[in-house]
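[step 3/7] inverse_fold.run input=structure_tokens len=289
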């Protein structure tokens, strides 16, 4: 029950205001303590080249399923996963297994991302989408990552790469720390003002990096805290001051875009915070010639 309560609070950061609390409760009721079924044969490879004997047992398992429809590098976020794996390994060593199941439409694109990110941890290229067919995972990407116990039963749900609160929850469970319900201060919400949620970069040479700034103003009565910022593509980066913003203050989101080739682009930046409108969707658009 304690996991259930805290996970509702953690996952609510990812929910639009029109998503009601009971929808999250229904999702957790359906999946918590449910056993994840794995295909009889799962072939794990390193960058799609070498098949490896990969032992999937362990005290805990973190399994993430990615259908890779859309921007592959954005969904995989492999550089962030590597950092998280290093943190977990420093805490629990080899007792936590990471199970990556990718169900790509185009294998070549996945292999390219694996090589570019120098990701040498074993992954399963699940061409037949067997894992998802067996389990019928939730359709939303943020609910397609699970923390399992040694019996493959789900004890937490959510993507620790996209949600810092879920990350903290996973680490607390893995370390065996006592979980307590978040205090009232963490549930305080505020209001955010922004001059424009859309900025056009116009036409420019595709080899030249472009930079713009979105300014978020805390127009409410409580401190503004940004939990995470996600982009729809690896070609878009965001930097900002991580310090909480007091009422009346503001924070600048410095967005940089570097095209990989000539293209007309329309990219989104998703800001997860304690504002009433969270998540806040920002957009940049232009033509890289």
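[step 3/7] decode complete -> sequence:
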């Amino acid at each position: 029950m304690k996991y259930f309560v805290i996970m509702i609070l953690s996952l609510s950061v990812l929910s639009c205001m029109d998503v009601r609390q009971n929808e999250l409760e229904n999702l957790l009721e359906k999946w918590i303590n449910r056993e994840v079924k794995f295909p009889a044969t799962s072939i794990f490879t390193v960058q799609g080249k070498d098949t490896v004997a990969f032992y999937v047992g362990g005290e805990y398992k973190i399994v993430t399923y990615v259908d890779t429809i859309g921007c592959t590098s954005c969904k995989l976020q492999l550089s962030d996963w590597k950092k998280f794996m290093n943190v977990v390994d420093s805490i629990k060593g080899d007792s936590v297994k990471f199970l990556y199941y990718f169900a790509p439409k185009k294998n070549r694109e996945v292999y390219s991302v694996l090589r570019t990110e120098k990701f040498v941890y074993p992954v399963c290229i699940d061409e037949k989408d067997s894992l998802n067919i067996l389990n019928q995972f939730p359709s939303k990407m943020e609910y397609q990552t699970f923390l399992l116990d040694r019996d493959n039963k789900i004890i937490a749900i959510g993507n620790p790469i996209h949600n810092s609160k879920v990350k903290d929850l996973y680490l607390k469970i893995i370390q065996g720390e006592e979980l307590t319900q978040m205090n009232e201060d963490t549930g305080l919400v505020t209001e955010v003002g922004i001059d424009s949620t859309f900025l056009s970069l116009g036409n420019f040479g595709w080899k030249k990096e472009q930079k713009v700034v979105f300014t978020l103003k805390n127009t409410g009565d409580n401190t503004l805290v940004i939990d995470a910022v996600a982009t729809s593509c690896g070609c878009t980066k965001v930097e900002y001051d991580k310090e909480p913003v007091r009422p009346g203050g503001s924070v600048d989101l410095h967005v940089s875009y570097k095209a990989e080739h000539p293209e007309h682009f329309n990219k989104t930046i998703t800001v997860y915070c304690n504002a009433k409108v969270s998540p806040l969707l920002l957009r940049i658009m232009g033509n890289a010639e």
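[step 4/7] annotate
Confidence is low (pLDDT under 50) at residues 13-20, 180-186.
The helical segments are 2-11, 21-31, 72-76, 78-92, 107-116, 130-135, 164-175.
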